[in-house]
């Protein structure tokens, strides 16, 4: 598994795994649902699937749940 991860890093494949509470970025994230939450509007509540970039281009966006506007 370590060899696979290092091979991906050598080829500039980088994981997109936004932390809960981080700002929603439509260029790197895909909002699957919008839920009411106690945090700031338009922030990530949860990650359903990690995304990946390759050489600065989005290969697959991270699938996220986003907080609803108040």
Plain-language structure description:
With 70 residues, this protein is mainly beta. It has a single domain, classed as Head domain of nucleotide exchange factor GrpE (Nucleotide Exchange Factor Grpe, Chain A, domain 2). The chain contains 1 helix and 6 strands; from the N terminus they run αββββββ. Strands 1-4-5 form a 3-stranded antiparallel β-sheet. A 3-stranded mixed β-sheet has the order 2-6-3, with no helix packed on it. The longest helix is centred in the first third of the chain and has 9 residues, at 2-10. The chain starts with a helix and ends with a strand. The mean pLDDT is 93. One of its GO terms (biological process) is protein folding. It is found in: Cytoplasm; Mitochondrion matrix. GO terms for molecular function: adenyl-nucleotide exchange factor activity; protein homodimerization activity; protein-folding chaperone binding; unfolded protein binding. Pfam families: GrpE (PF01025). Essential component of the PAM complex, a complex required for the translocation of transit peptide-containing proteins from the inner membrane into the mitochondrial matrix in an ATP-dependent manner.
Secondary structure: elements and pairs:
Layout: H1 2-10, E1 13-16, E2 29-35, E3 44-49, E4 51-54, E5 57-60, E6 62-67
Parallel strand pairs: 2-6
Antiparallel strand pairs: 1-4, 3-6, 4-5
GO molecular function: adenyl-nucleotide exchange factor activity; protein homodimerization activity; protein-folding chaperone binding; unfolded protein binding
GO cellular component, one term: cytosol
Function: Essential component of the PAM complex, a complex required for the translocation of transit peptide-containing proteins from the inner membrane into the mitochondrial matrix in an ATP-dependent manner.
């Amino acid at each position: 598994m370590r060899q696979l991860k290092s091979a991906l890093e050598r080829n500039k494949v980088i994981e997109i795994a936004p932390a809960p509470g981080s700002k929603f970025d439509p260029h790197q994230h895909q909002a699957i649902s919008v839920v009411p939450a106690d945090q700031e509007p338009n922030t990530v509540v949860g990650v359903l699937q990690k995304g990946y970039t390759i050489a600065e281009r989005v290969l697959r966006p991270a699938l996220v749940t986003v907080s609803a506007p108040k």
